[in-house]
Structure formats: structure tokens, C-alpha cells
Amino acid sequence: MLEVSALQVNYGRVAALSGVDLTINDGEIVTVLGANGAGKSTLLRAILGAEPARAGGIAFDGVDITRMPAHARIARGIVLVPEGRRILISLSVEENLLLGAHMRTDTRAVRAEIDAIYQRFSNLAERRHMLASCLSGGEQQMLAIGRAMLAKPRLMMLDEPSLGLSPLFVSKLFDLIRELNRGGLSVLLVEQNTGKALAVAHRATVLELGKVVMAGDPKALAADPRLQQAYLGDGAPAPVLSA
Ligand code: ATP
Q1: Residue 9 near ligand 1, beta carbon < 6 Å
Q2: Ligand 1 pocket check: which of 8, 36, 158 to mutate, most ligand atoms within 8 Å of Cβ?
Q3: Is residue 83 domain-resident?
């Protein structure tokens, strides 16, 4: 479904991604792990079209989208739930959801999908006419995912969705990711919660300083001493993989 090949992205003269390859097959959850500054967010933003590729390519459903503007990629079924969620706190919960559907004309279907989101998340239903600033961090994350779903994506990219959430919401979040995936959605997940990300993913890739240093079966990666030392220990993630 998605084929990223030899992707290079620079910020000025600094290379944030240096020749990254990544494949996502239809119906897969793929997780991208790595320490701070490894280039994970840059990769997601480049796939969305928010950062230009300096070299390399991105194909979606066999179509080269490397130079396509972000809105055209979204129309093809790619969405990003960015780090920090970026919901509009001065708009109501419902207005935030409607924003996710702004490119759609099937208003009846949109209404039904919004009602389904309310059924699933009663906290959002109860606060539908309140400002989104009234929501807890976990509720805001659910709203951000709900809003992204209203764009009818086939590939959802999530950047650090569990950041700052209570353990209860973290487990609700991973349940939701599994459920959306069972419904046919492909997922590209960037997470600091390495254990949970490897548990939910079909495949995993580890980035370090803009390069892929490990890739493959999440169970094998979880058992790899280098990954355990770098990301699954008690301490903060440390870029030691290529040392
Ligand atoms: P984090 O977990 O901290 O979000 P990350 O793996 O997502 O890290 P990126 O945010 O993609 O990493 O950053 C990759 C590199 O690019 C880092 O060296 C970072 O400092 C740099 N970088 C990111 N955004 C910009 C920007 N807008 N301008 C300049 N440099 C940037």
C-alpha cells in the first residue's frame, strides 16, 4: 500500500532522513521506533506531504505521490494524527469532528459516523457542544483520532498518541488502534511506549539519526538485546543501536 524508498529529507543543510525505506502492506500495523531526534516525526510529515523529499520516493497504491501536495494525499486516504493532537481548543467537540469531514459531501454518512463516535466515546457525546479545551488529554486524543477517521482514511499515521495519557487511556487507545485495524485500516504508529507498540504491530522499524538500523518482526525485535538495552529498559531511550 505504501512504499517509501531511499527517502531523504533535510532541514537546511541538516539531513533528518538519510535514505529511509519503509513498506506498509494493506491491513498492517507498522510501528516506527527510535530515540528523540531519530527522524520519526519527519518521516510521518514527509509521507503526508508536509515536508518535501530531497531525494527518494513515496508511492501509495502504486502511484508516485512524492511531489503531490498534502491535500491530494489526504484525499487518497492518508491521514496524520500529529504529536500533541492539535485539536482546536477554541472550537466545540462537534466542530472539531466536522473539520475532519470538511472534504466530504455525503453529509448523512458523516452524521452517522459522528453519532457512532459519540456512541463509542460517551465522554465526547456528553461534551459535544462544549469547547474541546474542556476535555482531558485522553479525551482529546480520542477526538483527534475520531476527527482523522472522518476523513475516511485507509492509512492512519499516529505520532506519539500515548504521550501524557493515563494508563487507563493508554490501554483504551491501543484497544482502539487494534479495533480500527481489524476494520481494515492500515496504521503507521510512532511511539515512545515501545513495549505496547511492538505488541500491537505486525512489523517494526527502528530509526536512528535518520537511518533504518533494524527492521522486521516485532517479537524478534522485542527479544533483541540491542533493542532491549536501548528502548525497553528502565531508563530513557538512548541511541546506542549502531554503537
Ligand atoms: P521526537 O521523538 O523528539 O519527536 P523524532 O524522532 O520525531 O523525535 P524529528 O522530530 O523528526 O525526530 O527530528 C529529526 C531531526 O530533525 C532532529 O535532529 C531535529 O532536531 C531536526 N528537526 C526536526 N524538525 C525540524 C525543523 N522544523 N527545523 C530544523 N530541524 C528540525
Answers
A1: no
A2: 36
A3: no
